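Input.
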Amino acid sequence: MYNNYMDIMKEANSLYNQKFQNVDFYSDLLYKKYNAKLELKTPDKNISGAKIEDLNFDKQDFDFNLVIIDGFVSKNNSDSVKVYEPENFANELLKYKLFDNSNKYAVYAHAFSKNIIYIEPKEGEKINISINVDKNPYPIQLIINSSAEKATVNVIINSGKSKDTPVQLIMNEVTLGENSNCDLNILQLDGKSDVVNMLKSKGNRYSSLNLNESYFGNNITKEEAYLDAADENASVAVYKTVLGKEDQKFDIFTDIINRERLTKCNSTISAIVSDSSVCYCKDVAEVLESAKNSFSNISQKGLINDKTAHLDLMPDMSIKESYTKAYHSSYSSPIDEGDVFYLLSRGIDRKQAEYLIKEGFLSSNLKYIKDEKFRNIVINRIDSILKDKSKIYESVESVR
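Output.
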């Protein structure tokens, strides 16, 4: 047990110096095989961070309360957000630190974070966060502690514009108080650099976490979510959307845990891969012996848009309680020619038919994003990528 944050940081630095970063992340042999490996580099202290006015990232019609650039807070206009330097992190907040140093990415975050961001949303509050990668990103720690009956946190990630940009690591730790309800929406815009997004949550009695994540590609996107319905009647629902193109690689991992009785956990992922993109989807459901009369579900579905694209769906369930309901489903396929034929028979050309099928395939998850403005940003980005791909295919066909 740690007495203060500096104990965590010192241990992390010691482990990092022992080459702990090279340890395999997964103990499961299957997950070791299907694992996107990333090189974590020590941030360069000689490179200063950019200012908001210097950045040339995609501008969103969104009012951001918190703007982070390369791991440093550049703007904060919310009373619900507190920014700490590691040496000043409040000891009473340590109980909301859910990651320890048994995870190599957590080790990296604990060793090199310059700002620790603590968020405690007020009742009905919406907090909008912009995370931007420029040249020399430090890891980011977001700690969300919500006791509000209704709260929303929106996160938009603008990744780097070059494959040479070091990895941006984001570590999210979410604690939900009794009877609290939190919507957490994360959108990663397509870029060129590598991004690791980690999330760990703990839900107390009668709490509800509605997590929506949309990943539209980088060089490598690695995501791990550990979602714990830790007390009776707690619920967790996660909806992940992946849209890959070119040579992008995605490594998406979810672990949902029913820890106590009458808990509900649901994990749903929809993925489309095109060109030579690759996506690994790994979902684990754990129903513990104490989770009587609980519910657990994994749903994975994928569309493979090109013969050179690759998609692996890997559901896994560990059920230790007899009195429970647990389900899983997993399927992937090319676009159904029967669906294409139906639309062609209605006077729609093939390019538009395939566009509509892909858009409809991804839209099933988006209805769970309750924030209409955020949902529209996600829809518009999907629309833009799919239309851009249609133009590319049309250009290739004209050359032939």
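Residues 5-334 form one domain.
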